[in-house]
Amino acid sequence: MFETNFNDISEGLKKHLPAYLPSCRWFASKTKDIAEVDILDCLPMKRNLKTYMLILRVVLDDDSIEHYSMPLSVIEKTPSKEQKIGLIFALDNGTHIIEGIFDAGFRDALFETLIGGKTVEGINGVLSGFVNAKSISHLIEQGKNISSKVLPAEQSNSSVIYNDSFFLKLYRRLEIGPHPEAEMTHFLSEAGFTHVPPFIGSMKYMLNEEKSWREVALLQEYVKNIGDGWTYFTAVLKNTIKALKSADDADKYFLLPLKEEINRTYAMASLLGKRTAEMHLALSSDRKNDSFTPLPFKGETQKEAYAIARLWMKQAMKILKDNIQMLPSPTDKLARNIIDNEKLLIDRLKYYFTASGGEILRIHGDYHLGQLLFTGDDFFIIDFEGEPARSLIERRKKQSPLKDVSGMIRSLHYAANYALKSLACDDEASSFWAKIWYDNAYSSFLSSYRQEAMNASFLPADDEEFNATLKAFLMEKVFYEICYEFNNRPDWVYIPLKGIESVIN
Predict the structure, then answer these.
(1) Closest Cα partner for 358 from 193, 468, 474?
(2) What is the C-alpha to C-alpha distance for residues 334 and 497, in angstroms, rounded to an integer?
(3) CA–CA separation, 42 vs 54, rounded Å?
(4) Secretion signal: which residues (predicted)?
(5) Under 8 Å CB-to-CB from 434, ≥6 apart: which residues?
(6) How many domains does the chain have?
(7) Quick check: is 228 in a domain?
(8) 129 near 114, Cβ under 8 Å?
(9) Residue 226 maps to a domain
């Protein structure tokens, strides 16, 4: 049917996709209008099923161009409940055109193509599966009977679990060049780092005229878990704060069963520090691979890092000055204190970036508690794609590993303050306890990290230089957070404002 009615379907897609794409969580340019959508390529995923991978060329109102993967299924019968989720449009004859990720037939074909290392020829290019040779025998057996489900929490990509054994991430916005997530997970798996879900394979697309691959999908082993690191820590914190508020006096807290669970969070923060250091040690282990070889953090590299941090500070200061009158109390006092101490903060930031900062290497790049799978007694690190808003070139840049460390420290600070916020606890006792928890978790994480990475060449040589470089990136992160919160969650901006104190003191 697709072949005989191609014009009907393609014209329908061109008509409906400009409205459909902005409704998708993974569409990157929601603030811009779509001028045109072209079907750059159509790749049939399975002969006996009307399932296709479309490559879309999206022209935006500012004349910029983006490319997207669009799974497509043609459903000639009444669509299932799941299939209706992805309905794009229907033809007059009752045929439904749906986004294929919500069709089990398409998902099966996608998995089979990847694990079979198959190449699918399209109109203007090819789609190819690439599999880690060590996994082939295991995958052939698994591929005989496939069950799959789409994870509901879509963000910049789509995720599918197969047979409760494999995790596939379908990249939606496609760019030319190596994708940092596939590159990093493959490297870490080969380097023997066992706390990343093992790399299985990937899928790439190449336009005939370009001769360069675009990463379309990543397949890893699925790690059974009970949630992410953020959910684990904040749940314990909220339970403890509620118990504290119901206690008759402070001493009663120490009789609560939650005391043991709180102490366990410190142990888990320590374990997280160890896993973070192990990740950085693995990422610094190959001194011959140009994509991963560490480089000195000095000279132009250090100046560039300072310039980026200074820019975030400048933007945050402008936001605070422009909006100070709109901030509620006591957030306005925190903001005023930062504005009044602007020169001190500028001087501190500049001084911190003069420290001898060790080396730069490939790092996670978007490291926080939400990027951890919690198994109940350990952590697996996931989502190595970096910040989706940045280009692939930017996301593949080498940076100081202390940027990852600062990201996790800030995430622990957020966890403590989120627990207070979610319970509407602004009393002095709860706030004091949350600060104690953060201080202990921070200390446990950082001391464990330093002990595991002791004498690593990528870290500054002595305590003073280590602390200065860490504070440089903590300051950058806080100013970034101020900008982010004002633009996305204004009522959260008090958290990074409170964070400034803990950084510079």
Answers:
(1) 468
(2) 6
(3) 5
(4) none
(5) 237, 241, 416, 417, 419, 420
(6) 2
(7) no
(8) yes
(9) no
